[in-house]
């Protein structure tokens, strides 16, 4: 498949360091395919970067799935869009000759990454979830077989309540993921501590295998 024929508008940057797992960058609400490129390059130096743009528009702002209100999600659309993202990953792997990527997602991007892990575990080799929460009311029991997951929450985050973050962690752990959870002194926005933690996790848990 030619890269121009892929189902998502995206950016792809080839790997500069052989052996580094590719990274799937998933932006937050209102972002695009360029938003997380600097973060991805800094967190996983030398890795191939695959960064799609969300296909849902909320008052003109790109997202990866619909929501009905703040914190109220269209679960049917979540499931549909997770399938779309999994198919895009398969297309990109064929087009660019890369392995299964590790997702690095922020906010809405973290949520679609977690949903894709649970609904389509074959699509991702792991995920770094920055400010995620649970968006599946009845998550499936997937077979994640020890895949690494980083969960970075903000202690003062008004959008991702602790009980929802804990519910997501429980669903991932029940499916066999190896979850590392850190609560940072932060709100919903990203801080330098997110980069430091993500870098350490990519080196210690992903690159080391």
UniProtKB/TrEMBL annotation:
Where is the secretion signal located?
Answer: none
Instruction: Reply yes or no: does the keyword Acetylation apply.
Output: no
Q: Locate the AB hydrolase-1 domain: which residues?
A: 81-132
> In which domain of life is the source organism classified?
Bacteria
Q: Name one GO molecular function term.
A: hydrolase activity
* One matching Pfam family: Abhydrolase_1
The family database entries (InterPro entries) matched by this protein are listed as:
AB_hydrolase_1, AB_hydrolase_fold
Keyword vocabulary terms for this entry: Hydrolase
Is Hydrolase set as a keyword in this record? yes
Official protein name in the record: Alpha/beta hydrolase
- What is the species listed in this Swiss-Prot or TrEMBL entry? Methylopila musalis
């Amino acid at each position: 498949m030619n890269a121009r024929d892929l189902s998502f508008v995206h950016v792809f940057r080839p790997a500069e360091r052989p052996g580094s797992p590719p990274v799937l960058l998933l932006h937050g609400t209102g972002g695009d395919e360029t938003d997380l490129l600097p973060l991805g390059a800094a967190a996983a130096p030398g890795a191939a970067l695959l960064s799609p743009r969300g296909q849902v528009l909320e008052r003109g702002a790109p997202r990866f799935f619909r929501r009905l209100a703040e914190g109220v999600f269209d679960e049917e659309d979540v499931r549909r869009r997770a399938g779309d993202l999994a198919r895009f990953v398969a297309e990109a792997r064929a087009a660019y000759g890369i392995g299964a990527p590790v997702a690095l997602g922020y906010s809405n991007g973290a949520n679609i990454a977690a949903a894709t892990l649970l609904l389509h575990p074959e699509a991702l080799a792991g995920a770094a979830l920055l400010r995620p929460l649970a968006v599946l009311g009845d998550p499936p029991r997937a077979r994640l077989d020890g895949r690494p997951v980083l969960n970075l929450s903000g202690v003062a985050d008004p959008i991702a309540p602790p009980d929802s973050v804990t519910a997501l962690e429980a669903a991932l752990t029940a499916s066999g993921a190896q979850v590392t959870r850190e609560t940072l002194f932060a709100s919903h926005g990203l801080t330098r501590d997110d980069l430091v933690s993500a870098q350490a996790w990519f080196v210690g848990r992903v690159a080391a295998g």
